[in-house]
Amino acid sequence: MLPKSQLKLITSLAQKKYRNEHGLFIAEGFKNVTELMDSRIKLQQLYISNPVHATISKNHTLITDKELRKISQLKSPNDILGIFHVPDSRPIETNALVIALDDVRDPGNLGTIIRLCDWFGVKDLVCSRNTVDCYNPKVVQATMGSLSRVNISYIDLKEFLQNNEETSIIGTFMNGRNIYNEMLPTKGVIIMGNEAHGISNEIAEQVDNRIAIPRFGDNNVTESLNVAAATAIILSEFRRSSIEM
Question: What pTM value is reported for the model?
Answer without folding.
Answer: 0.93
